């Protein structure tokens, strides 16, 4: 009898197969997920010794993660878990795996709840499932927070049914049976493997079966450091990313893009010559440029480069960095508190655009026919992708199948599905299956980027207290058109913000908060709409906003005559926060004497019910070539599922912070980024990375918080603060070393 | 079109291809060897790192004609059947990979380094140029040291 083999699972359509056995579609039992998450975390526990307590900020009451959970609740239990005849559990995860290790964490939850070895759990990324409504978005550090309960309850239901099947077979009461190592075990030692029970378990009528996940105190796998379930495929080169798939007839395709962002094709001047080039199969003009299909990517690349195209203007042709900076400065809202007689610290900061630059460039496979279409791509908002693609190619949604592929990094990039949409448009235009790859240069210049921002901060203080704290952020508009607007609209009545706020302002207020008791706190965002390709970049507004704040905190401490760690300690709101700070200060030997040109720096951050501190040591003897040589990080995420994976996320956040604080950014010059590869966009390499990194995960206590983006902002602050102390400067513009030290590629 | 014969992971292959076609596309598009990844195409990111007669090369800039009569090893050819190379083992033990996309190249670079230098210093490890956009550098460093100790 057929339980699906692995290769069959690769190609099935995500629906419940006919020949599967114990397959559950657990209907929503409308549990109390949303309300349990509403309590502001840690507020009011342990008042700070010194700070003037402020009112909770919106993100203290309900953060973006809570919003996503709330929007997803009606469909949170529409999960598919299958127990196969060979005793494996196959779980379909309606999220994207982009390197964050979510399939491993979810496999651990399933294994734990089913008492099944981890090696017997398979996690497959679900196809786009529109019936999940708003519950197939991977973002906001939200996956574990949103699936922790539902996955455990689903697996617990499976276990209860398997136990019930054994109880029927043996005529023993279910409460006399236990589960162990993939089998149900009777008191007399008889065992029945899950595989042998799955058929019976699927057919048993079990009205009133009550299901409760294990108490967390009984977890033996969840919470222990565990290696990635897909690591072996990665180190042997057998992991299949989108472009490694062999989809029948799908041929290598690349697009010649305009010389400025959003330019369009006026005319192709040498189509005949290019069509005659070796290997070229087809050519088509699409909204984003001129697509060329060839037998190999090498030939597609040559043909695309050989094209002679006349272009219409783009949407920001006249814009360069200087104009953007001017507009941002003008857009920053005014402060409320005049400096007058109070003592105060004012500071302004600028952050450049930053490419997401995942190592796997934008790519997709599309096979569009007259009456149906099939798409393969790494997609973090698969449902919106499916809906948009269906509309663009003129097919009903249910005729478009969208497969979510594991992909080579995202950092926010794959919230957008422009590659998949473009591949579908090309496939329709050429009437052939298409394997689309963006060149690195195009990925950096025409891909997405974190918007540039400008920050004004003012803090007033007297008698050892911070009285007011104001932060005004002006940002180039962040594109959230990947389903977030719908989610915010659906949850509008519950949002802890008032007034006629834009979506962006709502995202800002539900993600950014000051972790310190700084009296009257206001943080406001104002956006400058520019028609460029932007997207959330790991930690959305927080890397810049909180990073700048952590720099100001050091300057404020200095002004008030306090040590940076002691100052933070005094003003942090909770003991939980102080514990992670204390941890890095002790483990990192805070305050030790450093040689000239070296310095320590510290930063702190709190988001999505988690908090972290970072202490770094920098070697800035040559201020033009600084290197972070040592880092100590501590994080409290409430309940770590896989501490090893969590450490990887924090390490990634640290490297992102090293890169974007010191050297990596995009220069915009007359409507296009100058940077076109990693030789120009200076993301860190091994030589820029510390040789000593220690990461501490605090013991479990409570519900899981968000962790995927947590690591960036504290590290940005720590690195900038270390650089400032080592060099005696006050960095205000990031990345700090940002010369155009290269010859740009031709447009 | 000229033909070229060379060995890929111990198997002799013959391909029809223009002399200047980069080896990367011969491997990926003509031979279906997809372990080496495209990340830049211009010898910057090193995601495609493979070995030519045991030396690390970047097939995105090696014309296929240069491979003629030589031995190409990609990540797929590193293990001996089910027995992983010590560097691959070290990579598993340190749980290095995040998205994994750079890791075939990182591993091939590390193997080439360790072949020349049994006990690389931090400064020598620093010389590895391969980009890891997920920022796994510290674990890569630890894995190289672990592999060195094993070998
Ligand atoms: S693809 Fe070969 S070095 Fe980047
Ligand atoms: S693991 Fe993702 S690029 Fe290195």
From TrEMBL, chain A:
Task: Identify the residues that the record assigns to the Aldehyde oxidase/xanthine dehydrogenase a/b hammerhead domain, covering every copy.
Answer: 236-315
Q: Superkingdom of this entry's organism? A: Bacteria
What Gene Ontology molecular function terms does this protein carry?
Answer: oxidoreductase activity
User: Sorted alphabetically, which InterPro entries does this protein's record hold?
Assistant: Ald_Oxase/Xan_DH_a/b, Ald_Oxase/Xan_DH_a/b_sf, AldOxase/xan_DH_MoCoBD1, AldOxase/xan_DH_MoCoBD2, AldOxase/xan_DH_Mopterin-bd_sf, N-heterocyclic_Hydroxylase, OxRdtase_Mopterin-bd_su_IorB, TAT_signal
- Please state what the protein is called: Isoquinoline 1-oxidoreductase subunit beta
Naturally occurring in which organism (per UniProt) = Planotetraspora mira
Its ancestry begins with: Bacteria, Bacillati, Actinomycetota, Actinomycetes, Streptosporangiales
From TrEMBL, chain B:
Q: List the CDD domains hit by this protein, alphabetically.
A: fer2
Q: Name one GO molecular function term.
A: oxidoreductase activity
Annotated keywords: 2Fe-2S, Iron, Iron-sulfur, Metal-binding
Iron-sulfur: present as a keyword of the record? yes
Q: Where is the 2Fe-2S ferredoxin-type domain?
A: 2-78
Superkingdom per UniProt: Bacteria
State if Hydrolase is listed as a keyword: no
List the Pfam families. Answer: Fer2, Fer2_2
* PANTHER family recorded: BLR6218 PROTEIN (PTHR44379:SF2), OXIDOREDUCTASE WITH IRON-SULFUR SUBUNIT (PTHR44379)
This protein's name = Isoquinoline 1-oxidoreductase subunit alpha
């Amino acid at each position: 009898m057929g339980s699906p083999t692995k290769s069959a699972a690769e190609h099935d359509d995500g629906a419940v197969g006919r020949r599967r056995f114990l397959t559950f579609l657990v209907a929503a039992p409308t549990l109390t997920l949303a309300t349990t998450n509403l309590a502001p975390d840690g507020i009011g526990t342990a008042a700070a010794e010194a700070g003037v307590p402020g009112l909770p900020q919106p993100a203290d009451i309900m953060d973006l993660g809570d919003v996503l959970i709330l929007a997803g609740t009606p469909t949170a239990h529409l999960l598919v878990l299958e127990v196969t005849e060979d005793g494996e559990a196959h779980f379909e995860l309606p999220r994207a795996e982009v390197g964050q290790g979510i399939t491993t964490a979810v496999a651990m939850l399933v294994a734990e709840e089913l008492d099944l070895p981890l090696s017997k759990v398979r996690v497959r990324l679900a196809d786009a499932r529109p019936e999940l409504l708003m519950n197939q978005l991977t973002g906001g550090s939200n996956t574990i927070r949103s699936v922790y309960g539902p996955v455990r309850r689903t697996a617990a239901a499976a276990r209860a049914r398997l136990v019930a099947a054994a109880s029927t077979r043996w005529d023993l009461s279910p409460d006399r049976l236990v589960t162990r190592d993939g089998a149900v075990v009777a008191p007399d030692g008889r065992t029945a493997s899950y595989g042998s029970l799955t058929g019976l378990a699927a057919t048993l009528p079990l009205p009133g079966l009550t299901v409760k996940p294990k108490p967390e105190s009984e977890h033996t796998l969840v919470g222990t450091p565990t290696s990635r379930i897909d690591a072996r495929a990665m180190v042997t080169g057998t992991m299949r990313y989108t472009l490694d798939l062999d989809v029948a007839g799908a041929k290598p395709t690349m697009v010649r893009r305009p010389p400025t962002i959003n330019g369009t094709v006026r005319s192709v001047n040498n189509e005949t010559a290019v069509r005659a080039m070796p290997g070229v199969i087809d050519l088509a003009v699409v909204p984003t440029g001129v697509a060329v299909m060839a037998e190999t990517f090498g030939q597609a690349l040559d043909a695309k480069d050989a094209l002679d195209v006349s272009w219409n203007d783009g949407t920001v042709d006249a814009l360069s960095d200087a104009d953007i900076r001017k507009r941002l400065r003008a857009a920053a809202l005014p402060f409320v508190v005049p400096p007058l007689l109070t003592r105060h610290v004012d500071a302004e900061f600028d952050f450049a655009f930053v490419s997401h630059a995942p190592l796997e460039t934008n790519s997709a496979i599309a096979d569009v026919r007259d009456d149906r279409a099939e798409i393969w791509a790494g997609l973090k908002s698969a449902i919106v992708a499916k809906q948009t693609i269906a509309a663009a190619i003129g097919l009903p949604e249910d005729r478009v199948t969208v497969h979510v592929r594991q992909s080579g990094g995202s950092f926010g990039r794959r919230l957008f599905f422009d590659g998949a949409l473009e591949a579908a448009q090309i496939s329709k235009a050429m009437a052939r299956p298409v394997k689309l790859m963006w060149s690195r240069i195009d990925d950096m210049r025409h891909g997405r980027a974190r918007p540039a921002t400008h920050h004004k901060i003012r803090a007033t203080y007297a008698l050892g207290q911070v009285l007011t704290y104001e932060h005004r952020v002006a940002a180039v508009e962040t594109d959230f058109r990947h389903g977030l607007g719908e989610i915010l609209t659906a949850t509008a009545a519950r949002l802890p913000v008032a007034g006629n706020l834009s979506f962006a302002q709502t995202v800002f207020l539900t993600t950014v908060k000051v972790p310190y008791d700084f009296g009257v706190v206001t943080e406001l965002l104002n956006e400058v709409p520019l028609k460029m390709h932007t997207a959330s970049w790991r930690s959305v507004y927080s890397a810049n906003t909180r990073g700048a704040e952590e720099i100001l905190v050091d300057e404020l401490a200095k002004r008030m005559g306090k040590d940076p760690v002691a100052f933070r300690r005094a003003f942090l709101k909770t003991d939980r926060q102080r514990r992670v700070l204390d941890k890095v200060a002790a483990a990192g030997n805070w305050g030790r004497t450093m040689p000239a040109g070296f310095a320590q720096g510290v930063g702190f951050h709190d988001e999505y019910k988690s908090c972290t501190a970072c202490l770094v040591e920098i070697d800035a003897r040559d201020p033009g070539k600084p290197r972070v040589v040592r880092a100590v990080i501590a994080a409290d995420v409430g309940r770590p599922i896989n501490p090893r994976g969590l450490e990887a996320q924090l390490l990634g956040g640290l490297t992102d912070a090293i890169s974007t604080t010191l050297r990596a950014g995009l220069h915009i010059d007359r409507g296009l980024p100058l940077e076109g590869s990693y030789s120009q966009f200076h993301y860190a390499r091994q030589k820029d990375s510390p040789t000593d990194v220690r990461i501490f995960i605090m013991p479990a206590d409570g519900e899981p918080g968000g962790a995927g983006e947590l690591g960036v902002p504290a590290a940005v602050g720590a690195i900038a603060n270390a650089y400032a102390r080592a060099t005696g400067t006050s960095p205000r513009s990031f990345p700090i070393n940002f010369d155009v030290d290269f010859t740009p590629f031709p447009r | 079109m000229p033909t070229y014969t060379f060995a890929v992971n111990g198997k002799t292959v013959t391909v029809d291809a223009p002399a200047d076609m980069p080896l990367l596309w011969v491997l990926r598009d003509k031979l279906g060897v997809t372990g080496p990844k495209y990340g830049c195409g211009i010898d910057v990111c090193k995601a495609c790192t493979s070995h030519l007669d045991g030396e690390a090369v970047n097939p995105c800039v090696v014309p296929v004609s240069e491979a003629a009569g030589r031995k190409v090893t990609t990540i797929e050819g590193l293990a001996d059947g089910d027995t992983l190379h010590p560097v691959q083992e070290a990579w598993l033990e340190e749980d290095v990979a995040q998205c994994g996309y750079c890791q075939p190249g990182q591993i091939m670079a590390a193997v080439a380094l360790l072949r020349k230098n049994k006990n690389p210093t931090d400064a020598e490890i620093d010389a590895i140029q391969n980009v890891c956009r997920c920022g796994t550098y510290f674990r890569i460093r630890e894995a190289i040291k672990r592999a060195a100790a094993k070998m």
